[in-house]
Amino acid sequence: MKQFIEKHPESLKKNLAWFYLGKSNFRKKKYKETIEYLEKTEGSKLNKEDLAEMQFKRGYSYLMEGNTEKAKTDLAEIKDKDNKYMNPAIYYFSHISYTEKNYGTALQGFNKLVNNETFGSVVPYYITQIYFIQGKYETVTQTAPQLLNDSANIQKADEINRMIGESYYNLKKYSDALVYLKKTNLASDLNPQGNYALGYCYYKTNDCPNAIKQFEKATTPKDSISQSAWYHMADCYMKQGDKLKAKNAFYSAYQLSFDQKIEEDALFSFAKISYELDFSPYNEAVKAFSKYLKEYPSSPRKDECYTFLINVYSTTRNYDLAIKSIESMGTIDPILKYTYQKLIYFKGVDAFNNDKFDEAEKQFKKSQAQNTDLVLNALNQYWMGEISYMRKDYTTAIDAWKKFLVMEGSISLPEYDLANYNIGYAHFQRKEKGDYTEANIAFRKYLLSKT
């Protein structure tokens, strides 16, 4: 054919020769050569059918060579005209529009091909994806299921099912989402986002075992999806009563700092469960609660956190830290104020038992000043007498115990009878005028209480 053109450059058939050379190279998928020869072909000298063929094959070759602008020009010439290449031209022009994110034009073309024998199995995926990308989830759920039903041997059906499922998921219609996401999961492996969506649908429909399976698949890579997966997995474990696994999952969610709300709640939940499990309350729970207070000092759960710390410190007899925790709180409610008075009292007893009488006196007076409980008030008064006695200040000791005996809340205490004995012994030790008589009276009261 080239030889013919070279020998007969003025021939009227030269134009057809270029055209046939272009067609021949197109069949061989030699798109550069196709473009070369069809660019030399004068379209005005071709009949209607040949012109349409030339424009399609040249446009397609431009597309294969990455020249989308020239491809669009050729395809646009024939996509709206009744010819043999109209439908392929519509498809490839629409596909170019789709890749250029010109979704309105792409949709217009793809919708024309829904019932086409050649492209009817391909376009549902693009139509669905365009609506999905645009966030038109209602439209996806309304149109895509019908496209699946109407098209035979549809391509990428599992992807369409995924987009329908995720659209229902975004619309918070979790039961409907499950139907399609489960189909996708059976057909192919879901990506982490798909696994999370499926897991969340199971979670919202109270199917924790299946939710956990899917959330586990969404924990890599370390991103916002994996953080949320760990967090909701932890809640599933809590619902199943497995606090140990819940604790570990909450900690994994806390370690990923993509969503600060999840991060904060996960740390608090980890600390709370650590306290409830009570494996090593001082080490793990205290560290977790202390970390929470340090990282979230303005949290509305600050006081609740301090309450847990107080309980931990009380359990481990760490009265100093328990008292400091209470004093760090903005306000102290009546129930906590009783705990506060009690802790100070215990701190005083502890100091007394270690012969730190000045410190003990300070704590008993501080506890007494809280004045929230009559029994604690009486006990503080009793121990003030003990301190004076240990200092050999018998007069002050006697006065303190006598005051204790008439206080509300004292009569029910085991120290009540002991106070009479102590008063008697203090009189005996003081040895002033009349002390032996007073000692005798006090000892008799003590003995009568024992009969």
Summarize the entry for a quick read:
With 451 residues, this protein is mainly α.
Topology (SSEs and partners):
Elements: H1 2-7, H2 14-27, H3 31-40, H4 48-64, H5 68-78, H6 86-99, H7 103-112, H8 123-133, H9 137-150, H10 157-170, H11 174-187, H12 192-204, H13 208-217, H14 224-239, H15 243-255, H16 260-277, H17 281-295, H18 302-315, H19 319-327, H20 334-353, H21 357-370, H22 374-390, H23 394-405, H24 415-430, H25 435-449
Helix pairs in contact: 2-3, 2-4, 3-4, 4-5, 4-6, 5-6, 6-7, 7-8, 8-9, 8-10, 9-10, 10-11, 10-12, 11-12, 12-13, 12-14, 13-14, 14-15, 15-16, 16-17, 17-18, 18-19, 19-20, 20-21, 20-22, 21-22, 22-23, 23-24, 24-25
Task: Describe, in plain words, how this protein is organized in 3D.
The protein has 451 residues and is mainly α. It folds into four domains: 120 residues, Serine Threonine Protein Phosphatase 5, Tetratricopeptide repeat, CATH 1.25.40; 89 residues, Serine Threonine Protein Phosphatase 5, Tetratricopeptide repeat (Alpha Horseshoe); 50 residues; 120 residues, Alpha Horseshoe (Serine Threonine Protein Phosphatase 5, Tetratricopeptide repeat), CATH 1.25.40. Helix content is 75%, strand content 0%. Helix 4 runs antiparallel to helix 5, helix 15 packs antiparallel against helix 16 and helix 23 packs antiparallel against helix 24. It is rod-shaped and about 155 Å long. The mean pLDDT is 91.
